[in-house]
TrEMBL record:
Domain annotation Glycosyl transferase family: ranges: 151-298
InterPro entries hit by this protein: Glyco_trans_1, Glyco_trans_4-like_N
Single GO term (MF): glycosyltransferase activity
Keyword list, A-Z: Transferase
Record keyword Transferase present: yes
First and last residue of the signal peptide: none
Domain Glycosyltransferase subfamily 4-like N-terminal: 42-139
Species whose genome carries this gene: Aerococcus agrisoli
Entry annotated with the keyword Transferase: yes
Record protein name field: Glycosyltransferase
Length: 347
């Protein structure tokens, strides 16, 4: 059983969760001993598609026409398309229709969380939907003291300077406007946002936030994964002020890094217990109070408990689940062929 792991426009999605997701899939399949290729011209038995571009749909249809099963990974929903770039809200209904078309071209749909499955089950999709985490490489998310000190020096941070970070695209949905507002209210804390989005595609209020000049606010831009690894270790607190997610790979990275984390109180994070695994916030004031409590030592660290939750979604565990999912997809195709043969056998 050889898998085609496929994403289109890889350079464009490199900084996004979808780009990271395929990297995690490659690691998961390697851990489970499942052969794979990323070249659609190679021989393969199952296509596992991650993107929803026109060429992605065309590939799905070609693979189906060749009699091979297609697994479509539903990283995107209409809900997390909203509040991203200019006109995304106006285009969201059309995007939902397109998602229905892409996902219905598959035999099996995989999605990263129970929440995203619940969302997709309200769409016009008639294919089975299974939940599988994007997974996390627990051994990767650590850094040496030397690496941490070098990064602190890079950003000219005093040894006792408190640091709160966020990682992600510079879009409204990720909470960048709230992040900037929090920096305004807490000048004694350094706030650093790692990640980049093309400003020409951003609405005015997001551009205004990104152009905010504060002594304690740094927009570091896109940095490679190996530097993000160090950034988590440098942070006192990770802030995930997102409005909508299908899972949130960066959250798993933060938890694996054992950094104290405050997340938006959203249904997608119900698997994490508030005040036990992470701290959850419902408003800007809530984020501020909990951040202050962690930095002052009034709130206990939850980093070890958060790490335990991340460990349940390890790359190794996810790899074993992929074995089942691919076998399930093969079985669906066999059933479909059998039903087709039975139908034509009646004539």
């Amino acid at each position: 059983m050889k898998i085609l792991l496929h994403s289109d426009m890889k350079k464009s999605i490199k900084q996004s969760g979808v780009g990271r997701a395929q990297l995690h899939q490659e690691m998961a399949l390697t851990s489970a001993g499942i052969p794979y290729t990323t070249n659609y011209k190679d021989d393969f038995d199952i296509a596992h598609i991650n993107t929803v571009f026109p060429n992605s749909l065309m590939l799905s249809k070609r693979v189906k026409a060749a009699g091979k099963p297609v697994v479509y990974h539903a990283h995107s929903t209409m809900e997390d398309f909203k509040n991203s770039y200019m006109f995304s809200n106006q285009a969201s209904k059309g995007f939902k229709y397109w998602l229905n078309t892409c996902y219905n071209s598959a035999d099996l749909i995989l999605t990263p969380s129970q929440y995203s499955k619940d969302v997709l089950e309200r769409y016009d999709i008639d294919k089975p939907i299974h939940v599988i985490s994007n997974g996390i490489d627990l051994s990767y998310w650590q850094a040496s003291e030397g690496e941490v000190q070098a990064m602190r020096a890079r950003f000219k941070l005093a040894s006792d300077q408190k640091v709160a970070i966020s990682v992600g695209l510079q879009i409204e949905r990720k909470g960048i406007i709230e992040f900037v507002e929090l920096a305004k209210q807490m000048p004694e804390v350094t706030f650093i946002w790692f990640g980049y989005s093309n400003p020409y595609a951003l609405p005015k209020d997001v551009k205004k936030a990104i152009n905010t000049k504060l002594d304690n606010l740094i927009f570091a831009g896109y940095i490679p994964r190996d530097e993000v690894r160090v950034a988590y270790q440098m942070a006192d607190v990770y802030l995930f002020m997102t409005h909508e997610e299908t899972e949130g790979i960066v959250l798993l990275e933060a938890l694996a890094s054992r950094v104290d984390t405050i997340v938006s109180d959203l249904p997608v994070f119900d698997y994490l217990a508030g005040d036990k695994d992470v701290y959850k916030a419902n408003s800007l004031d809530d984020f501020k109070n909990k951040l202050q409590g962690l930095l002052d030592g009034d709130l206990p660290s939850l980093s070890n408990s958060g790490y335990q939750q991340a460990s349940l979604k390890s790359i190794q565990n996810v790899g074993q689940q992929y074995i089942y999912e691919y076998q399930y997809a093969m079985g669906l195709l066999k059933e479909e062929k059998q039903e087709s043969n039975n139908f034509f056998g009646t004539f």
